[in-house]
Amino acid sequence: MRPARQPLQMVVCDWNGTLFRDRLEETFFFGLCRRAVWRLFRRCNVIGLARLAMCGLRCFGHYLVARRRPRQVPYHIGRIMRHLNRDVLRGLSAEELAAYAARYARRIQPRLDRRLLDPLMAARAESQIMLGVLSSGCREGIVAALAETGAECDVVAANTFTMDADVTVAFKFALTDDKHEALAGMLAERNIPPGAVMFIGDSPQDEHCLCGVGYPVVSFFADDSRKQQLARDCGAFIPVDQAHFERHLREAMGPAAGNP
Q1: Which residue blocks in the chain are alpha helix, DSSP H?
Q2: What residues have CB less than 8 Å from 165, skipping those under 6 apart?
Q3: Which of 12, 189, 210, 224 is 20 to 30 A from 202 via CA?
Q4: CATH topology of domain 10-257
Q5: Which of the pair, 38 or 144, is modelled with greater confidence?
Q6: CA distance 259 to 252
Q7: pLDDT of 189-214, one tens digit each?
Q8: Mean of the pLDDT values across residues 83-100?
Q9: Separation between Cα atoms, residue 197 and residue 176, nearest integer Å
Q10: pLDDT (tens digit, 9 = 90+) per residue, 240-253?
Q11: pLDDT higher than 60, residue 88
Q12: Which phi-psi region, left, alpha or beta, contains residue 17 (left: φ > 0; alpha: ψ -120 to 50)?
């Protein structure tokens, strides 16, 4: 049962398929793969290029299956990350990673959904509501993209790289389909009741979060069939355009937004 609504205190957004058009973080990791290919090519490392080609074929196969079967996304992304950790990501310096994340953030700005971001930034600036991102995507890419946008976010909970000194060991794919537990921990830490929370998501992995807050919202990027399913199963609000979302957001904020 969905918790009783209270005046809005926090908005938590998914990233992929919600604030960002990509569904599976493909732009971030494909870019790292291209860098690895170019590095091996410059060194004329034929064996390394052949190994990377095999890695790419395996990863692309899992990627295609994940796009067709949304409920199996965590499994297939986990398999992809095992290959990438072994052949692409291990040994990447912190400096290289930061430089790549900054370039990535600039490149993807047109793919961010300003229909959500702009009203959320305005609401945060004029009231006391908090803004969080909860995603199984890459924290480094999310933080860089938001910083490039000028968006201020109170918390970003996502998967990240493990480091040994200043060198990457692996990308730790720990936050997958247990987002509801992560959301509960985020709210408990800040003493915010679920009924005072808006969660915005798009995928099967977001269902428990959407059903567990006072203000569930489906992203603009979600498929039409998914929108209807989440509206039916979770009572989620489906915005038609930015103005429609802004009205819903201000109604949730209540007196804090100057509403009666």
Answers
A1: 26-42, 46-68, 73-84, 94-107, 114-126, 139-149, 179-190, 207-211, 224-234, 242-253
A2: none
A3: 189
A4: Rossmann fold (3.40.50)
A5: 144
A6: 9
A7: 999 999 999 999 998 889 999 999 99
A8: 88
A9: 21
A10: 999 999 999 999 99
A11: yes
A12: left
Q: Hey, is 233 helix, strand or coil?
A: helix
Q: Give dist(CA 220, CA 206) in Å, integer.
A: 14
| Whole-angstrom distance, CA of residue 168 vs CA of residue 163 | 4
Q: Which residue has the tokens 């998501």?
A: 201
Average pLDDT, the chain: 89
In this prediction, residue 106 carries a pLDDT of: 94
Length of the chain: 260
Domain boundaries, the chain: 10-257
Which band of pLDDT confidence, cut at 50, 70 and 90, is reported for residue 255?
A: low
Strands 155-164 and 167-172: antiparallel
* Bridge partner list, 13: 133, 200
Q: How far is it, in rounded angstroms, from Cα 151 to Cα 167? A: 29
User: Rounded CA gap, 69 and 50, in Å?
Assistant: 29
